[in-house]
TrEMBL record:
One of its GO terms (biological process) is transmembrane transport. It is found in: Cell membrane. GO terms for cellular component: plasma membrane. Belongs to the binding-protein-dependent transport system permease family. It is a multi-pass membrane protein. The chain crosses the membrane at residues 12-31, 90-111, 123-145, 157-176, 197-219, 258-280. Residues 86-279 form the ABC transmembrane type-1 domain. Keywords: Cell membrane, Membrane, Transmembrane, Transmembrane helix, Transport. It comes from Kribbella qitaiheensis. This is Carbohydrate ABC transporter permease. InterPro entries: MetI-like, MetI-like_sf. Its main location: membrane.
Amino acid sequence: MRRELNPGRVVAWACLIVLMLLTLFPFYWMLRTAFSDNTQLPGHPSSLLPVESTLGAFKRVLGLSSVAEAQAQGGSGAAVNFWLYLRNSLIVSTVTTVCQVFFSALAAYAFARLRWPGRDKVFALFLAALMVPPIFTLLPNFALIKNLGLLNSFAGIILPTALMTPFAIFFLRQFFLGINRELEEAAMIDGAGHGRIFFGLIIPMSAAPITTLAILTYINSWNDYFWPLLVGQQEKVRVLTVALGVFRSQTPQGGPDWAGLMAATLIAALPMILLFVVFARRITNSIGFSGIK
């Protein structure tokens, strides 16, 4: 049944369109700058279209331009090992996601389905950890990683979030609590232990929330900047987010290479854009379920 168009709906749609345009405009400005000639950008600051459209910024970022060509186009001429940084980001995000989802699922199962003394009190402590701002744990974690000799290593970047997070445990526990206990009891009557129940019953029935958690974890790990900057300063373990900051600091004589920086940002964001295109509905549902963005 088609709803009638009334003034209230018109105003609501107008506000929605304005908010959508405000949200998408920074992304459009990034595209506009990435496809512009960096030497011509200062002369056309208010142009809504790419200035002297060119792919030079992408060639500089991907190392396809010579030093002379890069400097002539307004770049710094410094080499950017983009593929190495991309590989490092993939390693860090993938290992963090696999480990965190697996160990969080184990912990959530223990909190949701097993009965042991002090279970609810321990879970309350985990929930309390959600209230602690992550910035407060950076210094202790940095001291621990340094004392373990793991600075400038993938292990140092991954370990603090590889085991589990309070949010991940809470997220999965809430779903595990809704699984019918009679199914678990029937499996026990057939001789199944907790390990078999977890891998053969709980995990298959929880594929949707586990996939959702994996997507959210991968996006957060990919976008993380401060922790990789603290412990991964060497190029061999530098991730894309940190590399963008380094690229920004390689300022040429005439001013920042804004076109190159926007091109690098666009390329760095492409995996997350593809992830969103493939799992758009699941990501939207997860945002509504978890209340995060």
